[in-house]
Amino acid sequence: MANGHTNGESAVSGNGHGVVMNGHAATGMMNGHADTFSEAPSGLKGKTLLLVNTGSQKKKFIIQKFKKLGMVVVVLNAKKNWAEPYADYWILTDMSNHDGAIEAVHAFVKEHPEVKIDGALTFWEDDVLLTAKIIDEFGFIGIPYESARKIRNKYLFRQFCVDNGLPAPKFRIIRDTGDLDFIVDNFDFPVVIKPAFGASSAFVTKVRNRAELINAFDYIRKNISIGVESSLRDGLDIFVEEYIDGDEVDIDILVQNGKIKFSSIADNFDKSKGAFFVDNGQAIPSSLPEKDQVRLTELAEEILERSGILNGCIHFEGKATKKGPLPLEINLRMGGDYVYSYVKGAWNVDLIEGAAKIATGMYIKTYKHEAPKKYIIGKDFQAEDSGVVTSWDVDDNLEKMPYFDEIFLYKKVGDQIHIPPAGYETLGWITVTGKNQLDVRSNLEEAMKMINYKVAKFDLESYIGRTLRKDGASPAVVGGHLLASISSPKIEKIKKAEKGGLKNLHIGVACNVYNGSSPAEKELLKMAKEVQDVLEMRGFKISVFDFNHFAKALDELKTADVDLAFNIANGINAGIGTKPHTSAIFDMLQIPYTGSGYEAFALALDKIRFKKILAYHEIPTPTWDYAYSLEDEIDEEEIDYPMIVKPGHADKLIGIETGAIVHDRAELRTEITKIINGMKMPALVEEYIEGDEFIVCIIGNTDDDIQVLPLTRTIFAGLPKDSPHIYTGETQWKHGADIPAPLQCPPKHIPKRVASLITEIALDTYNILDCHDYGVVKVRVDEDDNPYVVSIDPNPSLYAAAFMPQAAMLSGMKYPELIETIIKTAIRRYKTN
Questions:
Q1: pTM of the prediction?
Q2: Which of 809, 760, 811, 758 is nearest to 781 (CA)?
Q3: HSE, side-chain direction, 13 A CA sphere, residue 295
Q4: 40 is a domain residue
Q5: What is the span of the domain harbouring residue 199?
Q6: What is the spatial distance between Cα 77 and Cα 88, in angstroms, rounded to a whole number?
Q7: Residue 663, Cβ neighbours under 10 Å: how many?
Q8: What does the pLDDT read at residue 493?
Q9: Residues with Cβ < 8 Å from 72, sequence gap 6 or more?
Q10: Based on the domain organization, do 89 and 217 belong to the same domain?
């Protein structure tokens, strides 16, 4: 937790502090507490502080605290950022060029003689050395550069300990494989390999034998970079040290004039679990025996004195081992993440204010430890795999719990998370309080049951994290590829037709021709006519096959010498549930056709099997259950009301009417009875997701040609409360101005990460069902941006006003081009399969 480099923005704060989402936990971490050491005014009002690097937005609470104290803040940073509302002055410079940065401060002082800088501080590991140089240059109070240099470099720190007779594990710098042989011959395994510079345990790895050591060194040497961990810009040296068992702790220290004015020890747990050193949580006060705590604090004090560090806010990391206390590393700034919060909560000591007072030369009194005001424990939310966050569910009652302190969510739905060795990120953390060590751990266990999150891991067979979209009106593609040119397919007729151009193909339009006047019949007839007109206009030879008169259509197909069937048939002889048979007929006749095969159609119709497949592949979907008979019970403990009841085996939205959303058991039984007795099929019951519905239109089959058209969003929020916020069997046939709820294509004001996640889980759904050429996936998104797949349509409407043609039009693909693109996509599929 020391380094706090994980980016993130969301927080929820408790204990009467209210809830802050998509912001920061500053309110929760500041309100309700006394100022440092006493209730008296801090005396910092009007003091001017040079803040070296704002850090990421999660550090907002620090600069907010400075402003609350009435300080004038001059920010030295690469560029203006989120801190602009809190900064009084900016000095913009290249932070990696220390000489240039110092010159920029001199220029500022010269240009602003009215501004007297009283001190300098940093809370960001990357700029500890730059801050030390500024302190030397301007005579500020703080850590001298020579002291910072040998502490900041972990290898030099080890050498410093040895030179001063301080405890240290055996260690050696690693330059090449010859040094690895020395380690094998002279060290006891396990050992730890790590960068000399760095933060957040980046690239720190425990290895058990020679093979692991060679692999770890090779991996770190090839991948170590400031792109993975920005604090590595100070150097990329690697060294090895012996691993020593012990209880790992953090000591947070305020030291002034060489005297420790305050110190607090916190326990780390499960820090060295596995090969990587990942933060899992901390507890304060420490449960170590008093003698071990005293020895650790004395060691920290001796190291600070010997290294010439007389003033500062310090985060010391060490271990209590069988052989005595052992220093691990020292961070020459306040600890990150929840360090400030739990020190404030347990001891009522404000580290930010203490650091500011020391930096500006204000005397602080020694803190006299008494019983802690509360026991606090923090737990980090860690992912099992690198991937994309697909859901966050924090129980609304959590903040009402008397033990709740804070929850901080670095990662939102749609954000990527990288765990070792790919990256060193965490999802966030929670802190809870208690009356004693046992009580606080029990409270944490209870709180964790109220928090659920899911991460879809990066997988070669998944599209998660792989799509690119320039903007909302552009198609999303995989790896930057759009549709590739079509080469000769394997099917001989198409090969021959290709030589003379696609226009020589004989296209058979498989459709349903109606004389009726129902909305469904009108749409199907309109689609058949418009597709036929486009193909004729584009110069194709066409034949129409009416699957409502199947015997006749079958005879004609056998003799028509069709090269490719454009399959938009909704079924055979107007039979319900016969859509899968249309593609099966073409398979049996060995006629190439557009669109999906029998299996995809069948699974899309069978909503219960579709749900089971989504669950197996961990695709987010609303919680669900089903009933095959009226005696089957729906698990009302698992599914919250309101629920939505759907036919278990029906095309599109058939059977979903106004009353499908139910609010109690009586309504639930009524709707289930309608489906089981009235429609003679099982009933699917889902938790109803109140929110927008996204229509995801997909074209293609492989990474080389697959693309997702601009998303279409249906916004139900403006509809009357008593009207259903869903598409029903009636409204499914409406498009454009006839839609009862407003549409946005592309959707406005949707975070890019959420749009990407919707796109990627839709692609995974499309891929899992083995859809071909084109299709539509519908995704509901709740108020917290959690997406849920609700349905898939492998054969969506293709008349010009339908969702897919309209989305294609927005991306620059006119209706005739869309129809021809589907044909080209099908030909490429037959060529490669």
A1: 0.71
A2: 758
A3: 17
A4: yes
A5: 148-386
A6: 13
A7: 11
A8: 58
A9: 46, 47, 48, 49, 88, 89, 115
A10: no
